[in-house]
Amino acid sequence: MTTTPITAGTPAPPPDTSVAAAASPLQVLARVAATVWSNTKARIGVVILLLFVLAAIFAPLLAPYDPSSTEFARSQDASAGHWLGTTAAGEDVLSQLIQGARISVFVGFVAGLLSTLVAVLIGLSWGYVRGWVGDVINFVVNLFLVVPGLPLMIVIAAYLQNGGIGMIILVVVITGWAWGARVLRSQTQSLRGRDFVTAAVFSGERPARIVFREILPNMTSLIVGNFFGAATSAILAEAGLEFLGLGDPSTVSWGTMLFWAQNSNALLTGQWALLFAPGLCIALLATSLTLINFGVDGLSNPRLRERRKVRK
Amino acid sequence: MSSDDILLTVEDLSVVYEPDGADPTFAVENVSFELRRGEFVGLVGESGSGKSTLGFALTRLSKPPARISHGTILFDGTDIASIDAEHLREQRQGGFAMVLQSGMNALNPVRTIRNHFFDVFTAHGHVSRERREERARELIGKVELPAATLDRFPGELSGGMRQRVSIALALSLEPQLMVFDEPTTALDVLVQHAVMNTIRDLQASEGFTAVLISHDLGIVLEATERVLVMHEGVIVEDGPSSEILNAPTADYTRMLLSHYADPRAEVVSLPGFEDRAIRRQAGASRSAVASPEHAPTVVTRSISTAQESIVVEHVSKTYPPPRRGEQPVRAVRDVSFTLEPGQSLALVGQSGSGKSTIAKMITGVEKPSEGSIRFGGLDVAKLRRGQLRDLHRNVQMVFQDPYAALNPLHTVEYTLTRPVVNFTGLKGRDARQRVLELLETVGLAPVEQFAAKLPHELSGGQRQRVVIARALACDPQVIIADEPVSMLDVSLRAGVLALLEDLREKWGVSLLYITHDLLSARLITGNIMVLHDGAVVERGETAEVLQRPTDDYTVALLEAVPNPQRTRR
Question: Taking CB atoms and an 8 Å limit, are A4 and B506 in contact across chains?
């Protein structure tokens, strides 16, 4: 019996002293970041996003003037004093643009995060349960899917009248979670049939742990992708609602800038920067999130990770 | 031999894989050989040996990152290693064709089989419009399918029939060279046998030159007249089949051959199994032997041996009909057996015989339609979801596919820690200690290194050892092993089987071993049950049943076992 692999008689490994801790969550996070960073498109996206985030954080320092002061000459063209001109109410456009990044980035991240959270909770449980509970969830999700998004958003926003940013986030989350939940549910359903999930049942794992520790990590890229997608549509929805005047018009954001620019016929007066600048910023921010999604694809496949390691 | 006789000359061929960013690897290195017209040659090697890469290179189907880096392939006087795509396409008619392992899944599901044939005829224009129907019928007949098959859609055919269709499609181009890449691996044992016979008959009647690529030396030796053995990108042996069988020169070939045996023989031995087989033949009781090698393992057991038996009584399982108007599927019919504590029982049969359904019912994954299953005091059929934990504390499972049974994102340590924490109540360092002991038990040393690895860093055999370790983690009384070695290379199988056998003997665990492979059943089980269409057709002691089978179905299964010795009778 020489080939038997059983090492009978060998002393057990020295206890405790050699027992090291498993990889910390921080290391895992660093590995994730490195994976995303190694993709060129994602790197461009991260850089653009970072610029916007920094602009948002340091807005009071960067903005040349107070964004809500109306002390300047009205409807000015670009000049050395006002790089992007002034609005019809006499505010500095550049200052408003920098200040507006705060709202867009904030709403994008918070609403994206919340609607992803709702999508994950509902989608994963929905995919894992069987029987009538699934049918009930199915009905509710379908309800949210068939109602067209923008009209629903407008109705809810009009109903909640001038609730400010909190209201907009709520509206975006209510209208934005259903599609993500559906996508995550189908992925959960295909994963729950895999042997390693059955094996986890045999290991005595509770359903919640199976869903969130066994299945969820295998969908990281999908969830992160869903987050960036949700954040993108949240930014667009926020700008859209405010452009329609459904937000609080007294806040300074890219959406309200467009709203006031439209109201004051900025195009007729030849103030292209007033319309062009916030629009471009919205488009750039949305693009950066989409670019990051390219890098996220490599996350859930460990083999891709290995290849990148070799490259270095 | 005149030069006209040579159909294909491969000279100094190397194929390199150049994945994006990673170091290039040579899958095939400086390979040279010749094929004569009408020859049937086998190409054998284990996974990763480069055999399929070579097959793809021969038919110029290599795709990036694979690239022919060196050498020439002279086919009928033309160097096909360097011709352009359009010439290559023309070459496929009357030139070379390939049948793939997954070829049966390559058929377009929304087109009938007839349309598949017509597509090929149109693309190459070698069959006149009037003769198409006739030719399609002729071809489908050649692979022993009825002409009515032409009206069917791929989804309506079984795997074996689809593989026959893809062979017929390859034949329709009247190739001079056919490359079969594992044509039967995805098929069931009995079907495999029948398809191989068809291929062999076709080769004899049509006279094409054939290359059969397979991991299974047994199949290749049965079918072919000459064999090339490949190992790590190099051809280590090239000779007539009988010579390879009787006087292999390479160590590697000898090693491969040593893993074949006839399950019907008086004494069956494989590397690592000699003593066991003889001991069982001598009638020695498994527990009576207490030789020094059988010293206790490093893992201390909280439960000494299996005490409870699994009692299956008149169990049937009926699934609702797959489509309206069809008959319900009776997967298991009136099966009764008892798995005594410490016993090893084999459940054999081809796919669809109900053996896996029985395993699912015993583990509570499925509920029986009729009958009862008891484990000790537990009535398995009546357990609610929450109570399944009590069952899994004692009944564990080893899965078929080690590549699917481990969560790719969890380290070995995490995977093994979970059952330890859930079932034994150990925590923190104690649990980790136990995990390391388990790894040592299944022979994965150095344990610290293996504990930190992710599944993709392990080989198939190592993964299966982790799966076995997980099954052992909670000191189960019963282990159900569902085809635990069918996905592994031949040379790795013996090791995993030996491990299962050892663990069963030393830990006194009962083993229900589900397989279609009679040889492995013979090696590690004491009793056997043969299932056919959900019903037990034969049962008894494994050695007895396999040596003197009484049921026709058992005989058919035995016949289907590839065995190089048998062909040379």
Answer: no
Instruction: Specify the DSSP element, H or E, that contains B456.
Output: none
CB contact B271 to A (< 8 Å): yes
**Mutation choice for B interface testing from A28, A128, A202 by most B CBs within 10 A:** A202
Q: By the 8 A CB rule, do B104 and B147 touch?
A: no
User: pLDDT digit of tens for each residue in chain B (569 aa)?
Assistant: 445 678 888 888 888 887 665 677 788 888 888 888 888 898 888 877 888 888 888 877 777 677 788 788 888 777 777 777 777 777 666 678 888 877 667 788 888 888 888 888 888 777 778 888 888 888 888 888 888 888 888 878 877 888 888 888 888 888 888 888 888 877 777 788 888 888 888 888 888 888 998 888 888 888 888 888 888 888 888 888 888 888 888 888 888 888 877 777 777 767 666 545 444 544 433 333 333 333 334 444 444 456 788 888 888 988 887 667 777 888 888 889 988 888 889 998 887 788 888 888 888 888 888 888 988 878 888 887 777 888 888 889 898 888 888 988 888 999 999 999 888 888 888 889 889 988 988 888 788 888 888 888 888 888 888 998 999 888 888 899 988 887 777 777 888 888 888 888 887 888 999 988 888 888 888 899 998 888 899 998 888 888 888 898 888 888 877 766 655 44
The number of beta carbons lying within 10 Å of the beta carbon of residue B319 is 13
Read off the tokens for A111: 């609403």
The encoded tokens of residue B274 equal 């000699």
Burial of B200 (0-12, 13-18, 19+ CB in 10 A): middle
- The whole-angstrom separation of Cα B288 and Cα B294 is 11
Cα separation values, B51 from B175, B233, B543, Å? 21, 7, 36
Q: Is B38 left (phi over 0), alpha (psi -120 to 50) or beta?
A: left
Q: Do A201 and B19 touch (CB under 8 A)?
A: no
Surface of B (237-256) touching A: CB under 8 A: none
For the four alpha carbons of A107, A111, A112 and A114, in that order, the dihedral sign comes to positive
Q: Are strands B226-231 and B234-240 parallel, antiparallel or unpaired?
A: antiparallel
Locate the domains of chain A by residue range. Answer: 38-64+92-311
CATH class, domain A38-64+92-311, is mainly alpha
Contact B422 A199 (CB under 8 A): no
Return phi, psi of residue B35, to 5°. Answer: -120, 130
For an interface test with B, give the residue of A17, A27, A203, A299 to mutate (most B CBs within 10 A): A203
Where exactly are the structural domains of chain B?
3-258
Q: Is B404 on the interface with A (CB under 8 A)?
A: yes
Give the CATH architecture of domain B3-258: 3-Layer(aba) Sandwich (3.40)
Q: Counting one residue from A and one from B, how many pairs have CB atoms under 8 Å apart? A: 133
Inter-chain contact A303–B363, Cβ cutoff 8 Å?
Answer: no
CA distance B59 to B64: 15
Single-letter code of the amino acid located at B278: I
Q: Is the ipTM of this complex over 0.90?
A: no
